[in-house]
C-alpha cells in the first residue's frame, strides 16, 4: 500500500498537485477526486439527476443554470480553482442578463435566486462526492421576495386572441396557448397528448393523462373551446407542438399585437385556467387542484386568487 501511495503522490506531484497525507489517503480510497473540469462536474451532476429519475424539465433547468455559470466564469476551469471570489458577483450577472425591452430591470428577483440555488447545489454535489473540499457558494445568503404572480388573461384578451388575424406560424402558437388556457395543462403535458388521453365518462369527454413532471394524474373535462381547436387540426395528437422557449418568444409578439401590456408565457395559460375555475365557475380548491395535477390544494392559490366578481356572486342579494 505504501508503494502505491508513493506512486500516487509522485504522479500528482508531476502534474503540479501537492497532496497532504490525508488527501493522499482520500484519493487512494476513492473518497476524493483530483482534477475535474467544470463541464465534467456538470456532466456528473446530470447523470446523478437522471439516476434519481428527475423529470426532463428539471434536468433542462439545471443544464441551463450550469451554462449561465460557465458563461460567467469565462472558461472551463478546473473546479479546484473555483473559489468564493469567482462567484461573488454571479447574482448580479444573472439579474442583468435578463434585461430587455420587456424586462428593463432584468430577471425577477426570485428567478435569479433559483438559478443561484441550482448552481449552489452543483458544488454541494461536488463536495459530497469528494471532488471539492468546499462549496464556493457556501456563505452566499439569498433574500427571497416570494411574490405571487397571478398574471392571467382577461376576457377581452382571450377574445382578441380568437378574433385577430394571425400569420400561419403565430396562429399555431395562439391555438396551442388557448387550448392550454381552457384545459389548464402544463406545456410539457400538452405536447405529449394523444387520442388515447380523451375518455368518455358520465356522458362527458375528459382529458385524462399523467403529469410528465410529477406522474400525478390529471383529469379535466374537455372544454367546448378546446374541442373546437382539436376539430380544427383533426385530432388531439395533431395539435401544434412548439418548444416552450420558442412559443414564449412568439407570445411576446402576440401580446404586443393585441395591445396587452402583460408578459405572456405558457405558465400564464395555467393561471388563466385557474382564474376561470375560481372566479367564473366558482369551483372548489380540491377540484381545481385535481385538474391542475396537484396532490393537495396547497399551491392552488399560487395560480389564482379570488376576485370581486366571485365574492359578489357568493354574496348574492346581500349587497346594500
Secondary-structure blueprint:
Elements (H helix, E strand, L loop, with lengths): L1 H13 L6 H8 L9 H14 L4 H18 L10 H4 L2 H8 L11 H20 L26 H9 L4 H16 L3 H4 L7 E4 L2 E7 L6 E5 L2 H10 L10 H14 L8 H15 L4 H8 L15 H8 L5
Antiparallel strand pairs: 1-2, 2-3
Overall tally of structural domains: 2
> Tell me, what's the shape?
elongated
State the major sheet.
3 strands, antiparallel
Task: Report the count of strand segments.
Answer: 3
Gap from first CA to last CA: 90 Å
Would you tell me which CATH topology of the largest domain applies? hpI Integrase, Chain A
Q: Look at the structure and give the CATH class of the largest domain.
A: Mainly Alpha
What does this structure look like?
- With 320 residues, the chain is mainly α.
- The chain has 2 domains: 23-128, no CATH class; 155-318, Orthogonal Bundle (hpI Integrase, Chain A).
- The chain contains 15 helices and 3 strands.
- The chain has helices at 2-14, 21-28, 38-51, 56-73, 84-87, 90-97, 109-128, 155-163, 168-183, 187-190, 224-233, 244-257, 266-280, 285-292, 308-315; strands spanning 198-201, 204-210, 217-221.
- The protein has a 3-stranded antiparallel beta sheet.
- Helix 6 (90-97) packs across helix 7 and helix 9 crosses helix 13.
- The protein is elongated, with a radius of gyration of 25 Å.
